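Try this one yourself first.
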């Protein structure tokens, strides 16, 4: 009889009580509450890195396109609205760009200057404009300058003086930054065409 009583007690106490379940649930809630902000920061960092890599890739493409097509390519930022950028072919000589088409805000629209070009005739430039690119809505450009990639591989930047052609980028280069809140990714471009994502 003593043996049966012990076995009944053992089977009656197997499993988890309501208190055990509540404690485990509370413990898991505390762990999740501390993990969510960390996961959000990781997601933001991934998004920022991806956006900066896309911009860096477009810079590399503009340089390659300038060299292979023997034409001057520009990369314009926030054109025509914030967060958009586009590689465009300079339609006139760098020393005397066409004030209208080469500087126009609609140069960054697919309707006025479609991608791909309607034809590849050198008479009807531009032939080498790229598609309009957009940063993720959570990202924005910080520092930037409109850049020109020349057929010899060099890079020039608009310094705002109005001097034509633009001067080559000097020294350590110029920075283009992609921003997400307080986080920043920097892409450096020097006058010789070296493009570095940091």
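Now uncover the answer:
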């Amino acid at each position: 009889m003593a043996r049966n009583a012990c076995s009944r007690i053992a089977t009656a106490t197997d499993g988890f009580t309501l208190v055990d379940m509540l404690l485990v649930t509370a413990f898991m809630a505390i762990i999740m509450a501390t993990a969510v902000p960390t996961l959000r920061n990781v997601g933001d960092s991934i998004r920022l890195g991806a956006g900066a890599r896309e911009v860096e890739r477009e810079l590399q493409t503009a340089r390659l396109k300038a060299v292979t097509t023997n034409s001057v390519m520009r990369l314009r930022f926030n054109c025509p609205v914030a967060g958009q950028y586009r590689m465009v072919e300079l339609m006139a000589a760098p020393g005397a760009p066409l004030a209208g088409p080469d500087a126009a805000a609609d140069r960054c629209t697919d309707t006025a200057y479609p991608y791909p070009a309607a034809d590849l005739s050198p008479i009807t430039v531009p032939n080498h404009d790229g598609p309009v690119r957009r940063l993720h809505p959570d990202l924005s450009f910080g520092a930037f300058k409109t850049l020109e990639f020349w057929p010899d591989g060099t890079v020039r930047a608009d310094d705002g003086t109005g001097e034509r052609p633009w001067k080559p980028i000097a020294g350590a280069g110029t920075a283009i930054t992609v921003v997400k809140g307080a986080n920043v990714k920097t892409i450096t471009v020097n006058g010789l065409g070296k493009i570095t994502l940091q």
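Discussion: The longest helix spans residues 18-69. The CA atoms of residues 8 and 198 lie 68 Å apart.
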